[in-house]
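If you are new to this repository, start here. Below is one unmodified record pulled from the training split, so you can see the exact layout before writing a loader.
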Amino acid sequence: MQEKNIIISCNNLEERYQFNKVAKQASGAVMYHCGDAVLLAAVAIDPTPVEEDFLPLTVQYTEKAYAAARIPGGFMKRESKPGDFETLTSRIIDRSLRPLFPKGFNYPVVITVTVLSADPSIDMQVAGMHAASAALYTSDIPINQVVSAIRLGKIDDEVLVNPTLIEQEDSTLDLLVVGSGSDILMIEMCVSASEKEHIQVTNELDEDELLEILDIAQDAISLASSTYESEFNVAKKEEIELSLAPEKEDAELYKFIEKYYADLVSKAVQSMAKSERSQALKDVRKTIISDIEASGEDADVELVSKMLDAYKRSVVRALILDDNIRADGRALDEVRPIDIETNILPSVHGSCLFTRGQTQALVTATLGDSKSSQSYELIGSRNSLYETFMVHYNFPGFSVGEAKPARAPGRRELGHGNLAKRALEPTLDLYREGTVRLVSEILESNGSSSMATVCGGSLALKASEVETTKLVAGIAMGLVTDGDNSCVLTDIMGLEDHDGDMDFKITGTVDGITALQMDIKLGGIDADVLKKALYQAKNGRLHILKIMEEALLNLKPSLALPSSIIFDIDSSHIPAIIGKGGGTIREIIEKYSVSIDIDRDKNSVKITGASKDSVQDAKAYIDTITSTPVKKQMKYEINKKYSGKIKKVVDFGMFIEMPDGYDALLHISKVSKDRVETLNGLYNVGDSIDIIVLEQKGKKVELCTPAYLL
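And here is the target side for that same chain:
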């Protein structure tokens, strides 16, 4: 196929796509250009399907150091483990493209997006999404939809479509919407705090404003995706023939389960505990298999499991759609019971055990100084950046009753931690000092553990006395629809997430939304349903926030909190506190077991330690330094005689203490007109001596004796 160059100007983006130029042995590939950014997206497929019934899709977004004219830092001089931004971007692309594949597509597909040239003004997540979508659409894989990513920002109440990274720095809104045609497939949103008239503003979005902005995004997505499809058709490869795995169905077996085991399945579905429900369904499956084999027929265990799961799904959905009853007996808009305990760990700066139904998160807060921040690099930044607020989310196997060893956090864990971070960060003091690390240990999970992390994290910040403007709560919403009827579910549990049609996580304060994340399993969502979900989520969020406020009334201070003090000093004392080569400040830190931060811009010192006594003792020591008058060098008159004191005699001369207290060198050649070989025996330390100033340059003073001038 001949090389194709396609230039598209749409939604404030000028993009160039080069097809059939590179990576021609891949199923599909494109060289993507936007500004100075160049990305290569390539798609490869294994024509042998896996036996399991799932889509083995892998997305890998990688940033090469050479793209920014850099050599990787550290011992290893080649790219190794992907950074958090690369991992999160891979996850965003995966979540957006996965819905495009039809059911029964069980062929391994790998989509690789590589940044070859960086541009600090280009949004690499939007660029990566468009490059991957173009490569997939024009490949020989039978995918006939293009997705479009739209980033929306807000500066001075003006909504911007696809702002540059430089513009994003001043934006109070970061909203990424991915869709195809008129369908929205994925949403990620967060807000940022700002200062207005010396007051910190969180900049939450209310529900109506969010819906208006999403309308703008939907129009932009519809325009872009239709433009891409019409332009890319000339570069589309001939599709290979792939047979989709047949849906393993047995209508007779389904009817058999429905006729004879309906009561058992219904009872199992409505078991209150997740473990009880899981065991009850396993028992039903064993009973079905046993009864089939007792009748003299062979039982296909996999088929029985599939038909039982299909019937269970229909029971769950029918209860909701027909009877407005959920599996655990709750109303559609009811939040599970909540229990909160704070500062339960005596040696931790701040802690919160947040339990909602069968989901439980233990969130801890640890405070550190600026040296404890996490350094990281972005492809568009020349310098290292520092993260002073971190949220780390851990999901051990025992939280869902699985016997599996602990492993490094995967994409899901990083994604949930990032969502909680974006939800909480707008409420932190804009000018805070030091570093805060939240760690969420999920001890039990039955849906919405990331939202439990947000609630527990907000309370853990309060428990560790970190200054925040407001409490933040999170809630996960679900949807069940049959096309005609729709039911929105508040605070979904695992069963409703698995058998439902939407996972919509929303976080916010009493005044509005701070972050959200939505994945649609249907291929799109009706605007009226979305509006209902947002307002139902608001009621649930306010309910949770009220319980969190009540929990704060019983908050006991942590005994493990470090003590700190900040005080101002005269800038002239800073060199004395630091000492020669940093020796004085190191001595104070080691002697009193404290950390010391000196802010030269504000002329302030911050001392932090494990106890108030150690902090006060360190401050007292610094006070002795700052109470000593700072020596000020005199401006000497040239060729005038002064009296000094011999401080030290060396082979090349003497160090003389001048009247201003500073030492100056009297070189041996300037002692007498006659050459003197040694000063030993002629001059003694402590003796007074008359000297004449020949020259002064800053602190350097050139001396001689009166005898030298005779």
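Two things worth knowing about this chain: DSSP finds 16 helices and 31 strands in the chain. The first strand starts at residue 4 and ends at 10.
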